[in-house]
Design brief:
Length: about 260
């Protein structure tokens, strides 16, 4: 542990001089991901990773599970601990259908007052989801709002339970990454006059844009609004159509080479 802290300190001093270009804390074993581009290195460009944040909810999660089942596609659910505790039967259903449960904090905190507060939110959520995880499942963390600070890696690496986590898992489809029109599903909920189909089209454009740049897609959606389920249905119908020019491949985040590498 001592040596890894020294390594981290070295990595921090290195990154402080190029803070705007990289937040990656390599060679740390856990929490090494500061940019989606590096996370997806070595992944073929027709690969799509579907992720759903902020649930589970009875409004959207069961509908999303039904659609995923229809297309036989597995996804990763970054659940909020508080929501997970309130909907444990849905948690069980998510995992029993072959999807993965991941950690998105306990109360969707966008900032933390102390190291301990961050460790607590991570471990409290882990306590809820671990009962439904299966042997060999990788522990993944996504920071709420994508807000991530280097000190969080230091705090996580210094805690016996949090240390097993890999993260933060960013995304490159679904807003906030300067991709395409930067559309997110939650923006679609606000614009009630825009159809789920139109919102779904925007996601497909972002995925195709990544493909044209030689990149795989890590897609962010939220399972707290029914409109996201409707968008998903449209997106999957289009991408799996026999008329689609690309043969898309849907994978779990736990199969990303960089993720696997960091759990060894
Ligand atoms: Zn979130």
């Amino acid at each position: 542990m001592k040596s890894s802290l020294i390594l981290l300190a070295m990595a921090l001093s290195l990154t402080s001089t190029m803070a705007h270009t990289s937040k990656i804390l390599s060679p740390q074993k856990t929490f090494p991901f500061g940019s989606d581009g590096r996370t997806l290195e070595g992944v073929s460009k027709n690969t799509i990773y579907l992720t759903f944040d902020d649930g589970p909810t009875s409004e959207a999660t069961p509908a999303i599970l039904d659609i995923l089942k229809e297309y036989n596609i597995k996804a990763t659910f970054f659940v909020v601990g508080r929501m997970a505790r309130a909907h444990e039967s849905i948690l069980a259903e998510i995992r029993s259908q072959g999807h993965r449960l991941a950690n998105h904090s306990y109360n969707h905190e966008l900032s933390f007052k102390s190291d301990q507060e961050f460790i607590d939110t991570l471990n409290d959520t882990h306590e809820v989801i671990e009962r439904y995880m299966q042997p060999g499942d990788i522990s993944l963390f996504r920071a709420p709002g994508g807000n991530w600070k280097d000190w969080q890696a230091l705090a996580a690496n210094g805690n016996a339970s949090a240390r097993k986590y890999v993260g933060p898992i960013f995304w490159n489809v679904g807003g906030g990454n300067g991709n395409a029109k930067d559309d997110a599903d939650w923006k679609c909920w606000k614009t009630w006059w825009v159809s789920a189909r139109k919102c779904g089209k925007s996601y497909i454009e972002q995925i195709e844009n990544n493909y044209n740049r030689g990149r795989a897609s890590l897609v962010l959606m939220h399972d707290i609004n029914r409109k996201s389920a409707d968008m998903l249905e449209y997106i999957l119908k289009k991408l799996t159509s026999s008329r689609s020019k690309v043969q898309w491949k849907f994978e779990l985040i736990s199969n990303i080479p960089a993720v696997k590498e960091n759990t060894k």
